[in-house]
Amino acid sequence: MEQSPIERNALCSEFRWLSTSILCLRPTADTMESSGPSPTSLNNFRVVYLITQMVGAAIVILMGSWIGVHLGGLSWTSNPATQFNWHPLLMSIGMIFLYGNSILVYRGFRYARKKPLKVTHAAIHGLAFVFTVVALVAAFDSHNLAKVPIPNMYTLHSWVGMAAVVLFGLQYLFGFVSYLFPGVRESMRSTYMPVHVFFGVLGFVLAVAASLLGLLEKAIFAMPDYRYLPPQGVLVNMIGLLLVVYGGLVVFLVTDPMYKRKALPEDAMLLTHSPSSQ
Q1: Which value, to the nearest 10 degrees, does the dihedral of the CA atoms of residues 212, 214, 215, 220 take?
Q2: What is the pLDDT of residues 148-183, one digit of tens each?
Q3: Which pLDDT does position 118 carry in this prediction?
Q4: What is the DSSP letter of 93?
Q5: Which ranges carry the Cytochrome b561 domain (predicted)?
Q6: What is the pLDDT of residues 86-141, one digit of tens each?
Q7: How far apart are CA 253 and CA 105, in angstroms?
Q8: How far is CA 45 from CA 38, 52, 85, 159, in A?
């Protein structure tokens, strides 16, 4: 039986009301972000964050063990061969462990005020930069001071590594000027933020890639029997696998929107530079 116009209009109105109600009940990305992660998601984050720290610490410990047990330990210019060993050790601390923790600081300490987090982020970056500079000096010195000088910057590892270091330095400079230097307009900071985040993650990925290339390069030079997988080779391969795991966990934690830090009321006061934010 054909419906009357009045009945059709009533049915259409009811359908529109039902559709609107369903859309309103669905959580959008904005509402999820503003409400913050659920308790279950936070627990998952804490577990993954703890695993990430354990993997990062394991990389540094195993790298130190490799250097101490198999590569002759550490020295400075008196022995260029072992002076080079500072390079993988300090790079593992600075450009891997500290760099990863620096870009995770906002999510790992989500309930801290933003201003201390900014200072902590910059301080960890600064410490990583110091380790990186000393590591580069050790590498160049060990090449230049060898009995038969070794050419610099000819391997893929050196090119990728230098690209990571340059990007890291530029990130530190522009980040400091944009977010810690007084007088920069908030609109400019907001515009630059996605760029800062993207190139920060890119620099970390390049650092992991350079570490893997350098690890393989040093293993081939140090182990003529690497093809037979001696104990030293197993150790080197384990360090490489942990580098991949650590890099993947850091990128996952810093890019998953569910784990994004929820803004605190104090952050708004900080952005307006009110005296109460100090």
Answers
A1: 130
A2: 999 999 999 999 999 999 999 999 898 888 887 777
A3: 86
A4: I
A5: 51-255
A6: 999 999 999 999 999 999 998 888 777 878 888 899 999 999 999 999 999 999 99
A7: 11
A8: 10, 10, 35, 35
